[in-house]
Amino acid sequence: MAFAPDGTALASAGDDGTTIVWNTHDWSPAENLIGDSTTISALAFTPDSTTLIAATYDRRLIAWNLSPRTAAESACQLSQDPELAAAEALVPGTSYQQLCRAHT
Which terminus of the chain has fewer Cβ atoms in its 10 Å neighbourhood, N or C? Predict the structure, then answer.
């Protein structure tokens, strides 16, 4: 699970690869994000709360743009720990593309 830095959302992931972004005002599902069947090991919002990064157990990163809502960016294959890469998504100014370049 991960809270958005602006406090408006909570993201949770299931073993089936589905990620739900919850509206923290009323705890209703705001987004139902379908990745694939791979289990997600870590979630992180970017500091501006507009992108959600998911790290999977098969060493990939998936990014969903939440504002405006667009399809997931292509997943990149990682050579290092995906949870470390997801944690680095919290660093201000870090983009999904920078994370992929740094960890592939």
Answer: N
